[in-house]
C-alpha cells in the first residue's frame, strides 16, 4: 500500500505527462464511438428503409434488366408469367414479379439567377405497387402523395431541396422526345438513389446538376413516347430477405440465391429463344444496384475502420504508459529495493503497477465516452446527413458500441503495464542499492565508431543509443502518433488526384446520351456549331462464370495522348489493335485484381445471358473507380449489335448547351458539374478533415513531448555532470537539437512507412468490385509528414534547455558520488 501511494504521488507530480496519456486514450474512445455510431446508424437506417413493411420500400431481391431497349407490355407480362410458372426453388418462394420502366432523361430548370440549366436525370414509372416503392419518411423533408395522373411526378428530395422546388410547382422534363410539363405532387426518396450520384460516378451530385423523379407508368410512357405497359426492368421479390453475395468478401454468402439467379437466367434465355428474339438481358441481385452497394460498403467500411482507429490511438497511449511506468520504476528503485529487503513479496509490489494503467484507462474511457456520445456521434451523423442527404431517423448510440470501444482501450492500457510491473517485482535489492542497475555503457563497437567524431556529436550518439529498447519504442511511438495525420494526407491526395485529375485531364466538355439510333441528330448539332465530337458505345457486361458487372466502353480512338477526347492512363502493357482476330481490350487495374486476370491472357466476357466474346488483354489502365473494359467501338458494336449510346462533345469558346440538344438527348453529363461536385464534397468535409488532421498533430505533439521529456529525465545525472564540468547551456542545447532532429527524422521516416502500409491495408479492406482505388506513395505527402514531425521535435528543444538550466546540479550528481 505504501508503494502504491508513492506511485500515485509520483504519477501526480508528472501532471502534464499524465494528462497527455489520459487524453490520448480519451481521443481513441471518442473516435471509436463517433465512427462506430455513424456505422451503426447508417446500417440500421438502410435496413429499415429496405424492409418489407408499412414503413419500408420492400427492396427487390432480383432484377432482370434490358440494357439495349424496352419490352412492350405483352412481352414483359409474358416473361413474368414464364418465371412464375417455372420458378425453380420452392424454398425461396416468389412473392411478386413486377415490370418497371426506367428512362434516362433531362430536366429543364431555371435557377434563381434566371439561367436555364440542362439537368441530367433518371425517370421511374411507378404506379404504387408492392415492391421498390417511393419512401416518404416521417420527417419534415418529405410530403405529398404518389403520382397518379400522367402529368404528375414525385421529385426526389435531393433534387427538390437542391433546386428549391416545392409541392405544386410545375417542372419541364425530357427523355429524347421533346419537352413535357409535370406537376410536383410529392417529394420523397427511392432506394436506387439514396446515394445521389449518377450511374458509374462515385461523387454525390452537386445541387442542381442531377435529378430523379417518380411518375406514373402512363406519365413516363407519355414522356418517352412509348406504348402502354412498356418496361425495361422486371423486379422479383422473394418472401423474406435471402442472403446475397457481398462484393467486398471472397466468401459466397448468398449461395442459394446465386443458384436461383442462374436458374432464372436460364428461364429468361430459353423464353427469348422460344419466341425467336435475341436479347442481351442482365440478371442480378442487390449487389448490382449502385446506390444500395455504395451505402452498404460505406457502412461496412466505417464498421471496419473504427476499431482500427481506436486501437491505433490506444497503442500510442499504451507505449507512452509503458515508458512512463519504466521511468517511475527507475525513480522508485531504492524504495522497491528497501521493501524487498524488509521481506515484502513480489506479489505485493506488482498490483500498484497494474492498477496505475487501469486507472488511467478508466479515466480516459469515461472522458472519451462522454465526449463521444454528446459531441462526436452527433457530429458524425450530422455530417452523414449533409453529404448523403438522408435524415438519420432513429439514430442512437448503442451500449454494445461503447463497451466494445472501451474494452479495446482498457485492454491495451492494461497490457502496457504488465511488463513494467513484472520488472518492478523482479528487482534485485543488492544491484539497486549498489547502483549497478543504473550503469549503462555503450558497446565497444559504438565507442570506436564515435571516437573520431567531435566530442559533442559522439557523446550525443552514445547517450541516445545507450538504451536501445527505449529508443526503438520512442521511434515507434512517434511513427504511430502521425499515422492518423499521415493516412488522411495520403488518402486525400490520392482521392483528389483520382476524382479531379482524371476529369480535368479529359478534353470533352459534355457527355451526351442519345436514344438508340438518335446519334445523327446530336452529331449534326455539334457540327453546326463547329464543336469537336466523338461517338462512344457503353454497354454492361460480365466475365464468364462471374455475376459482377463491368462497363464496356467502345471508343473511336483509344489513346494516352493529351489531345484525345478521352485520355487513358496506361499502367502496363500496350494499346489494343482494332479488328484483331481475337478482340483486343484494355482492362482497369481493379478488374484485373478481382478477377485475377493477367496481361496477355484470353478471357471470355458475356453481354447478356448467352452472348459471349473472347477478348485478349493487351494492357491495364489505372484511375477508374468502376470496373471498366475499353474496346475499339467497331469491335464492341459487332458484339452487342448497337452503334452509339453516347456522343462526347468539346465545346468551342462561346458555345453552350441549349434546349435543342436537350430535346434530342436522354441525358447530358457536363465535366464542370463533376468538378464542382468534388469541390462541394471537400467543402462539406473540410471541418471533419481539419479536425482529424489537427487530432493527428496533437497526438504527435503529446507523444513527442512525453517521450523526449522522459529521454531527458533519464539523462539528468549525465547532463548535470556536463554542466558541473563546465559545458555551456548552448553546447548542451546543440546536443539536444541534434538528438531531437535525429529522432524527428527517423520517426518521420517510420511514420511514412507505417502510414503507407496501414493506409494500403485499410484501403484493401474497404475496396470492392464497385469501388476501387489504390494509394500511391506521394513524395510531397511524405515530405510534409517528415517535415511536421521534425518541426515538432526540434521545437521542443527550448523546453529541454529551460529544464536543464533550472536543474539542481548538487542533487543530480549526488548519486554518482555514491
Structure description:
- The longest helix is centred in the middle third of the chain and has 43 residues, at 346-388.
- Strands 2-3-8-5-7-6 form a 6-stranded mixed β-barrel. It has a 6-stranded mixed barrel with strand order 12-13-18-15-17-16.
- 53% of the residues lie in helices and 16% in strands.
- The chain is elongated, with a radius of gyration of 33 Å.
- A hairpin with a 5-residue loop joins strand 2 (94-110) and strand 3 (116-125).
- Helix 15 (483-504) packs antiparallel against helix 20 (671-713) and helix 15 crosses helix 22.
List how many beta strands DSSP finds. Answer: 20
Low-confidence spans: pLDDT under 50, at least 5 residues? Answer: none
Helix count from the secondary structure assignment: 25
Q: Class by helix and strand content?
A: alpha+beta
Share of helix, binned: 40-55%
**DSSP strand content:** 15-25%
Our Rg estimate from Cα atoms comes to 33 Å
From the N-terminal CA to the C-terminal CA, the straight-line distance is 29 Å
Q: What sort of overall outline do the alpha carbons produce when their principal axes are compared? A: elongated
What spatial order of strands do you see in the largest sheet? 2-3-8-5-7-6
